[in-house]
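We now fix the convention by which a protein and its fold are recorded. Think of the row as the fold of the chain written in a discrete alphabet. Here is one such record, which you should read through line by line.
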Amino acid sequence: MIVEFSKAVALLLALCFVQSVIGLRWQNDELLGKTLSGILFGVICVIGMMAPIEVTPGVIFDARSVVVSMSGLFGGPITGGIAAVIAAGYRLWLGGGGTAVGVWVVVSCLLFGLAYRYCHLRGWLKVGLFQLLAFGLAIHAFEAYFLFRFLPDDVVQRVLENVSLPLVLTFTPATALLGMLLHSIELQVTTGKALVDSEQRFKDIAESASDWFWEMDRDLRFKYVSHRFHELFGYEDKQVIGKTREGLGGASDKDEGWREHLEDLQERRPFREFEYSIVRTDGQTRHLLINGQPVFGLDNSFLGYRGTGTDITERKLAEEKLTKARDELEQRVEERTAELKAAQSKLLRQERLAALGQLTGTVAHELRNPLGTIDASTEAIARQIRDTDVDLATPLDRIQRNVRRCDIIITELLDFARARGVEPESTQLDSWLTAVLNETRIPQGAVVHCNLGAGDTVLSFDRDRFRRAVLNLMENASEAITSKYADARGGEIQVATCIEGGRAKIEITDNGTGISDDALPEIFEPLFSTKTFGVGLGLPTVRQIMEAHSGDVEIVSNAQNHTTKAMLWLPLRNPGSISESE
């Protein structure tokens, strides 16, 4: 009898194999898979009932109790219901005295299986070997109860003698064995489905992410790049797969970043935020940032790298724009600071000039009266001693020269402090300048070279005030020469004119002592002088005159080479024309 029941158990093992095929093949179509599983369980029940153990006519024993209960436990209501309908239907079709009990066994085994499933899903019961043994024992004990309750006594007696013990000894462990196998299949199917879902989820993320994913083999050659890489850079798989990163990115041994990255790869070290450039198929250069992690096998052998990549071109462009904007802002701040300093310097100069003007007016009034008295007294003394033997000509002449010198200084102070306006007249520059130079006193022994290149250019300027500017520069050049050369021999003054950049330029150069680098920034400050005489208003007056003409003055000096170049700039009367004729 046990051998007969063992044949039924072998049929259950075949059931497990086919069930595993169904579970793996139709894991994505849950309804179809459950339906096919239900049919399979039902067919196994039918096959079992086609070769049953028959105690008396109409009373048969087979493995349907195990099969139906497992269909309810692992297949749920759909699978178990289909299997129970097929099994019960076939049992009804067989008929006999044990039909009602047989059908009820099918129904009760289904209910037992569904109840166990419910408890398992709620976490109340586990699916394990001992739990399944207890489950199988409970099912077949309940089946025996129905046999004893509803079958005739003589049939019950024959069952007790021939079937009950083999039934319990075979089908109870068979229930546990089938349950463990089906549980293993269920776990395999669940794990496989989770793996497929995980792979699909990774693929969906990889395809939809703004970044891309890549993988290299042990030879550091690409074996996978996600679709996003192709979208960004236009490369096809065949253009990337099998190539190294440096082959795509244009690595250079001179680039320190590339050297460190290649060292990381050779040492199998993880790397983060490595930046490099790649040329798209359309020739456009893009900037990339990648991260990578080495992959090792169970035997610690190197398998390659996996990582992510990001297109940071827009970020790099934004950084460049930000840097440019920052540089421009710094430049504008510097320019504005310079303007503020210039404005402050101008304001201070104006305040100083205002104070100087007030002081000059007072001093001029207080000094000119006594100077006039001194000058008149000197002339009176000269007349008194003219017909006498007293020789006071030299000291009297010295007194008169110094009185005139003081008067000139007072006049310069007043002219500078009053800063009167200009009265421009149309004047041909070169001819006017020639006349001014002819009446200029030049130290004896010095040479003046003229190179007047303005031609017939006509300018509009105040002749008297501009003459004062030119004479001041010529006087400075003469004084520089006499300071260097005792008799002025060897001294040279070069005077040149030209039209340059829409302006007329007068250039006066001397080979005198030059101006030191320390003094050069201060030469236009009123009352500043490097000479032992004078009041330091020569160059400030020149600048004042040039500013009144909307022009400019520039001094360039090299104390080591003993040269000084003074340049006067005047705007053309008609900027659209280089020259005009009278």
Notes: The chain has a mean pLDDT of 79. The chain is about 60% helix and 15% strand.
